[in-house]
Amino acid sequence: MQKSKLLFILVVCMASMAEAQTPFSKEIQGKVVAKNEDVAAVHVQNISTKRATITDLNGYFTIKATVNDTLVISAVQFKRKEIVVSTDMLQSSLLQIPLEESLTELDEVVVMPYNLSGDISKDLSTLKTEEVVTASTLGLPNAYVIPISKADRELFEATTGGGIPLNPIINGISGRTKMLKNRIKRNEKYERTQRVRAFYADSLIASDLKIPQLKISDFMYFCEVDTTFSSIIDTHDRLKIWEFLRKKSIAYRKNNYLD
Q1: Containing domain of residue 235, as a range?
Q2: Which of 101, 119, 157, 173 has an alpha carbon within 20 to 30 A of 84's alpha carbon?
Q3: Nearest to 69 by CA among 93, 50, 54, 43
Q4: What crossing angle do the helices spanning 216-224 and 176-199 adopt, rounded to 10°?
Q5: 168-205 pLDDT, tens per residue?
Q6: Which residues pair with 30 in a beta bridge?
Q7: In this structure, are strands 43-46 and 78-84 parallel, antiparallel, or unpaired?
Q8: In the chain, how many domains are there?
Q9: CA angle, 197 as apex, 192 and 198 as ends, to 5°?
Q10: Contacts of 172 (CB under 8 A, 6+ apart)
Q11: pTM for the whole structure
């Protein structure tokens, strides 16, 4: 009987020792936290058991681990972090893991194509470039002739006949010649108007001259019909042109009840 008791005690002790030697395993509830960073889809891997998971939108995760297992937390935007699981971690209701932002700054890169130094005065003397091929460099005839516009060509044909002697007379009687001359003048004024539009942004005309953006084209036409428009624009003096536009804007706003 006494031997049976001793045997039972021995079995219980051995079972206790075996249980004590068995590592404590548990599902860890954890959360990764970071300052001003997205903590969703961060990889959490137990490299000891080859298990892995990812965090949810708020950084929470669950993974099974044992004491002394190694957890690796990683993401592109964070520094890689390794944690060795302790008993306290397993007994914790929520394991919080702070992560640090990973700064991926590149060293300064200086690109020097063609061995350029960046000093234009030096580079121009050493840089070899191919000759620009144009009609003038090739010595082609009429290389410097400026092409005339369609309206100019039509007026030339209307006034010279273009091989038909009666054309100038017919065009003069029908009024076509006068119409073509007026078209050329209108085109010239339009070119001047486009030049002015290139000088000053529409937003500047709208804010400083108080012309609604939808009416800027109409305002420019209002300026065109002024007899002094062409001469002022041809001065290329932007201050003088702006003063002209300012005065015309006062009249335009008054005529259109914009004030």
Answers
A1: 150-255
A2: 101
A3: 50
A4: 120
A5: 666 666 676 677 676 666 666 667 778 787 888 888 88
A6: 61, 95
A7: unpaired
A8: 2
A9: 95
A10: none
A11: 0.36
